[in-house]
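Q: Give me the 3D complex with iron/sulfur cluster.
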Amino acid sequence: MDCRVYIVSCPDYDHADEKMQLLFSMMGGIDRFVKAGEKIVLKANLLQAAIPDQAVTTHPRIVAAAARMVKGEGALPIIADSPGAGYKYNSKTLNTLYRKSGMLEAAEASGAELNFDTTCVAVSFPRGKLIKHFEVINPVTTADGVLGLCKLKTHTLMSITGAVKNNFGVIPGLSKPGYHAKLHDKAQFADMLLDLAEYVSPRLSIMDAVVGMEGDGPGVAGFPRHVGLLLGSVNPLALDIVASEIIGLRREQNPLLIAAAKRGITPSCIEEVELVGAEISKIRVPGYRLPATIEELGIREHLTWWQKPLGPYLKDWLSQAPRVRGKKCVACGICRDSCPAGAITILDTKRRAAFIDDKQCIRCYCCHELCPEGAVELRRSLMHRLLGIGAGERSA
Ligand code: SF4
Ligand code: SF4
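A: Here is the predicted complex, encoded as structure tokens.
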């Protein structure tokens, strides 16, 4: 498997076209990936309707630059994604999403098509180690090929979302909670993502790391952070390994890399990746804020000898709990519709607001990820406070 990751510096989005051309020429030319007459899905990260400056979605200038390259080969670029859990995959949702995220302008400027086909198809994938059947959005099955246009972002559940996780967007919005419901465990969820990435098999993945997201991403609760890079690879896992290095995410904090190593997939660490165009030591971003939830992965390291046997019984105490900030909540119901555990109700009180039943919550953090108002916060558990874990991230 090709483990090369190509990197070009891209100081801002005004340079998107020029840097995209440079990246493709380093990778052997666009004609290596696209042929005249083909239909190519540009699978951007369009998690939710957010403006480009919020760094929630792949920047429209990057999408337009990729679309121009595809179009230049005589192929048809189609911009497609299904937004996050809780959002219905229909024309109304897509219209809002395309308008707010700048995809409408990107399509107009580049000649790309915007996907409005909201049908879904059940596909079987016998090679899947964990999941052998998926329901996916139709354009992925009818296109000749997929180019992944992911965004560098932190992620409260999976620590990072990049090239591999980007493929979760081919699952229609309201089907996504089912995966969280069945796969509570981060390790299992990571396993599913590896199967899905193999099913989608993008011909190439490009990462918009010009402005990334740090903190409690991947939704509006995270913060934009300038990184100034554009990355490309035929190997999504290799791309994510480099992205993790850039933001200072250790391998043991990354469920995807742990799952990949367990399957014996290479590469599973930076030493097995070949970097082209930059040295890793020169592109690390110091002080990149990681999500507070990653401590749950290594929390047992923090327990003293007498606390260790209690660990399995205190699972709920050991994880960050979502809470709704009533004043910010507009009772839109997106969190309720995204919740795989049915733990959220909209209270019909004088001031309508969402309420989370902590007993039912399985800590998937979809509500936190998808609340468009940033009204869901993550509170440190009692154990986090007792052990003094996570306090730094809150004050950062
Ligand atoms: S918490 Fe957010 S997503 Fe949930 S109802 Fe309130 S505003 Fe909507
Ligand atoms: S309430 Fe809990 S289970 Fe429901 S979406 Fe939020 S984190 Fe997930």
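A quick observation: The chain has two domains: 4-283, 292-395.
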